[in-house]
From TrEMBL:
Record keyword NAD present: no
Protein name stated in the entry: ABC transporter substrate-binding protein
Keywords, sorted A to Z: Signal
Species this protein is from: Dethiosulfatarculus sandiegensis
Pfam families: DctP
Length: 329
């Protein structure tokens, strides 16, 4: 009898131990960019710190380069529907589902990273309201360096933009193209080189970091720093997946996320400086915008933002007004 009881309790102990071993939660995280891109590197740091802080109770598995098969415009819905527990979402790419989300991707709205941080902080409550409708919320954000244009020929005025065949990645790029007389095409990076060789493109709009990732100097000659946008990326989590986590795990994840957001925003200026230096080192001519051209671009941006704000609604209009009051832009 004693032997039977010993066996019974030993078996019960093993079952409890096995249950604890397999109790951790696993999330698959969609990432838009290659594994060596600094946003993906940041996501790996986040996942590693979460795993350590929660003693392995939450394991976030990374899928860089959109390897799970989702495209930018689909991401808000994919998280909302639980197809993804967690995903990196560029604000400018989900405008079709939620126009207000493109607020931080508006053209020529900020001149500095500090101004862009101010804009995001003003937008956070409205972003949270939109995301609540989509069954998700933001854990942390990160920022891209300002986007410029890569071309075969010099661009020193608004007139020089006319006739370019340019790759863009969001609605802001398409609107800019329309206003500037550019034949803009929205396409992923993977399609840029073939399109250039086929003569469908002769330029692209993206950041210094992406230019280095793409080795832009192999096909283009000039990087003109028009600073059209410094896009904000959101790391969003499905609310139902979040609610399944124990409260102590949630608290640990939120602490790591808050630290991560500050780290990612602090890194962006250095990433920009280093990437511009790499472009120049590899033979690309880096061009700063002259004052007359900047004035033309700012006027273009003001018209485009006013048009967008009508579509985006009252919340967007109020945020833009407050931002203008606080920054003078």
């Amino acid at each position: 009898m004693k032997k039977s009881l010993v066996c019974f309790f030993a078996a019960a102990f093993l079952l409890v131990g096995a249950s604890a071993c397999f109790a951790k939660t696993k999330w698959d995280m969609h990432l838009n960019y290659p594994a060596n891109n600094f946003h993906s590197v940041g996501a790996k740091e986040f996942a590693d710190k979460v795993r350590e802080a929660t003693n392995g109770e939450l394991d976030i598995r990374l899928h860089p380069g959109s390897s799970l098969g989702f495209k930018g415009p689909e991401l808000l819905r994919a998280v909302a529907e639980g197809q993804l527990a967690i995903a990196e979402i560029p604000t400018g790419m989900v405008e079709g589902d939620a126009p207000l989300m493109a607020l931080t991707a508006q053209p020529f709205i900020a001149n500095t990273f500090k101004e862009q941080r101010k804009l995001y902080e003003l937008a956070k409550p409205a972003y949270a309201k939109v995301q609540k409708r989509f069954n998700q919320f933001t854990l942390y954000t990160s920022l891209w360096p300002f986007a410029g244009i890569y071309t075969q020929r010099p661009v020193n005025s608004a007139a020089d933009l006319n006739g370019l065949k340019m790759r863009v990645y969001d609605g802001t790029g398409l609107a800019f193209g329309d206003a500037a007389g550019i034949a803009a095409r929205k396409m992923p990076f993977s399609e840029v080189y073939p399109a250039m060789k086929a003569g469908l493109l002769d330029s692209m709009y993206t950041s210094s970091v992406s230019g280095v990732d793409a080795k832009a100097w192999e096909i283009l000659k000039y990087f003109t720093r028009i600073n059209i946008v410094a896009p904000v990326n959101l790391i969003n989590v499905n609310k139902e997946a979040w609610d399944k986590l124990p409260k102590d795990v949630q608290e640990k994840v939120l602490k790591v996320a808050a630290e991560m957001e500050n780290n990612m925003w602090d890194k962006v200026a250095k990433m920009d400086v280093d990437s511009v230096a790499t472009l120049a080192k590899n033979g690309m001519t880096v061009v700063e915008v002259n004052p007359a051209f900047r004035k033309e671009l700012d006027a273009m941006g003001e018209k485009l933002r006013a048009k967008w704000a009508k579509k985006a609604g009252k919340d967007a209009q109020e945020i833009l007004k407050k931002y203008r009051e606080e920054t003078g832009r």
